[in-house]
Amino acid sequence: MFSGGLTACFWPIILVLCLTRNTYILPVAEAIWLTIPSSGTKCVSEEIQSNVVVLADYYVIDENNPDQIPTISARVTSPFGNNLHHNENATHGQFAFTTSESGNYIACFWKDGSHKQDSELTLGIDWKIGIAAKDWDSVAKKEKIEGVELVLRRLQGTVEAIRGNLVYLKDREADMREVSEITNARVAWFSIASLGVCIVVSVLQIWYLKRYFVKKKLI
Amino acid sequence: MMEKIWGKTWALMGLVLLNSVSNVSSLSVTVNDVECVYEYVIYEGDTISGNFVVVDHDIFWGSDHPGIDFIVTSPEGNTVHSLKGTSGDKFEFKAPRNGMFKFCFHNPYSTPETVSFYIHIGHIPTEHDLAKDEHLNPINVKIAELREALESVTAEQKYLKARDTRHRHTNESTRKRVIGYAVGEYILLTLVSILQVIYIRHLFSKSVAYNRV
């Protein structure tokens, strides 16, 4: 249905979207805004399993003085401490990586020392993982689908991601149940052992004192 | 021919417009005193839904932590939604108007807490939107509803995952406590009994005995 006329009308579409507040219409630029304090760092983190695509985009928002936008520095660390992304003195940046280990991924931002103002600045972060980070435009081009079919493919991708998340939650619950049962067994054994330690120690005490008093000829 | 091309263009734009709903991943933030997150709501009447869980709270003493407060402020400054003293909850309400909404977490205590939150703003085209743009089909409404339903399932999963993370922290802490406190108890017991024996020996030592009588 849309095949023929689209390529000719690519530019008007982009122009209109650019003019009509496209930062909130094109899915690329959706984001949450955070305030970065004038001193100290602001960190956001997420616990991500391994083999997941992470795509993030951050930009400084300053409506007060658009000529001199304050700059920030950013650092992204993996749960093992590896530095995945480092950027200094920038007003915007992006990073993308595929997680190799599961754990807490932390992205920290702080204000650069070059700006002496004491004000907080606003940072917009667009953080997408997994199915949300998938490039649907390339899928549409590759498989030559568009319109309703593309939307339904996206929904199918979401459903598959839901099923994957369920399996992950199930595995995590199984791990936790194992830890709980081990702790349960340990509580029982350690309590019995503490009773045993009590008895053994008191028997040793009495035996030693008796031997001592016999040696000292008191009894 | 040109009208057909422009018609298709507007229809495609309509589809792009409808299916670009705001979505963020579930991020965790450390709340020392107040932490605010801002998100822009495009259309009035959009459903703002989400959840948050205090993941790493002070589990050292007492399970009756007062929790944190969650307050949502509209662009005009009115409090639209507030939850007090919880350690995690879901929320859903309709945006009274479009604009920049502020989602704030207040920590009444001095110990920093890590909060994992997820905010989703969903838009379903109404009959007004359908009437405005003649190229929007009712199928777009159904697709938007389906998408919102799937997003709500995903939101529940993120909530479960955050709660599971908190439960795992509690479990790990319990495991460490069981071993630590048990071994500490044994050592303390042995130490105390040795001290008892030494003290009794001291009471019966010659120097003390001579000072009696």
Run of helices and strands of chain A:
HHEEEEEEEEHH
- Helix share bin of chain B: 40-55%
Mean pLDDT of chain B: 82
Net shape of chain A:
elongated
Round the mean pLDDT of chain A to the nearest integer and report it.
Answer: 81
Number of strands of chain B: 9
SS-derived structural category of chain A: alpha+beta
Describe the biggest sheet of chain A? 4 strands, antiparallel
Q: Roughly what percent helix of chain A? A: 40-55%
Q: Strands of the largest sheet of chain A, in order across it?
A: 1-8-3-6
Q: Any idea of the CATH class of one domain in chain A?
A: Mainly Beta
Shape of chain B: elongated
CATH fold name of one domain in chain A, please?
Jelly Rolls
Give the termini separation of chain A: 109 Å
| Structural classification of chain B | alpha+beta
- Helix-strand topology string of chain B: HEEEEEEEEEHHH
**Number of beta strands of chain A:** 8
Largest sheet of chain B: 5 strands, antiparallel
InterPro entries (chain A): Emp24-like, GOLD_dom
Pfam families (chain A): EMP24_GP25L
Main location (chain A): membrane
Subcellular location (chain A): Membrane
